[in-house]
Design brief:
With 272 residues, the protein is of the alpha/beta class. It is 35% helix and 22% strand. It has helices at 60-67, 90-97, 115-126, 131-144, 160-171, 190-207, 218-224, 244-250, 253-261; strands spanning 22-31, 34-44, 49-53, 75-80, 83-84, 100-103, 178-182, 210-214, 227-232, 237-242.
């Protein structure tokens, strides 16, 4: 059954009885007086793939920045467990940020480091692991994403799909239970995109990783997403939240239209 168009502020627990990993309550996002989205209420449930979608300019990437601590809300809260990400002190916020990994749209690998050094960087900054232990863990993460032979490779030598896999390996460096992916399939050919979908499915099904995926790629959304959160650029709020196939069949008209016909390629939405 389709979930309410305007979910209540007090988000109910997931159907399996587990508490949500993240709860978003009354979130309004704005740049000065320009409201991007208002009154967002949703949760992120353990072990699911939640896809965030909508037309160009609706605020998908802006929402991601709010979820990972890069942009404070104009109103509302982002709760990890019982902790408000934006009300936490520095020590608490640092601890909260280690609960998730992030893959940015272009990969954001440091060009001055090898692939292996990129993956080891979070371990070096945030843990007391020794050099040998860091290297062993980084090689394991690279093998996990199909890049076992690329520890010493320069990022510039990687294809687009390989850069995305390397960025996922770095996002997994600290074994977070939650992974945020910004347009993982953007700019990839269909075969490479399908292989990346298989990797994300493996992370969810075999490792139990929860994935939040900003995407406009309908093939990936239908292949991976347990639920779809739809942001509407006109009403500036969420207009649907539920399984993609159900929303395509019986969701709001604009959501059905999006899921049946697709959307234009993504554009730069807002300044980073």
């Amino acid at each position: 059954m389709q979930e309410p168009v305007n979910p209540p502020t007090a988000t109910p627990p997931a159907p399996n009885g587990q508490e949500p990993l993240v709860r978003v309550e009354g979130l309004t996002m704005a740049f000065g007086r320009n409201v991007v989205q208002r009154d967002l209420n949703f949760d992120i449930r353990p072990g699911e793939v939640l896809s965030i979608a909508g037309g160009s300019g609706c605020g998908k990437s802006t929402l991601l920045r709010h979820l990972i601590g890069l942009q404070a809300p104009a109103k509302g809260r982002v709760l990890y467990g019982q902790s408000d990400l934006y009300a936490a002190d520095e020590d608490e916020k640092t601890a909260l940020l280690q609960n998730f990994g992030v893959m940015f749209q272009a990969g954001a690998l440091w060009s001055s480091m090898t692939v292996g050094e990129n993956v080891m960087l979070p371990m070096q900054v945030l843990t007391d692991m020794g050099e040998a232990q860091r290297e062993q863990a980084a090689r394991f993460k690279l093998a996990l994403v199909g890049l076992a032979g690329n520890f010493d490779t320069e990022p510039s030598a990687l294809s687009g799909g390989m850069r995305k896999r390397a960025a996922i390996a770095r996002a997994l460096a600290l074994d977070p239970p939650l992974l945020f992916l910004d347009e993982p399939s953007a700019g990839l050919d269909p075969l490479t995109s399908a292989h990346l979908d298989e990797l994300i499915m493996h992370l969810r099904d075999d490792l139990g990783t929860t994935v939040v995926m900003v995407s406009h790629e309908l093939d990936s959304i239908f292949a991976l997403a347990d639920r779809l959160l739809f942001l509407d650029a006109q009403t500036k709020t969420m207009t649907a939240l539920g399984p993609p196939k159900e929303l395509r069949r019986s969701g709001p008209e604009e959501v059905q239209h999006f899921l049946r016909r697709g959307a234009a390629a993504p554009q730069q939405e807002e300044p980073a």
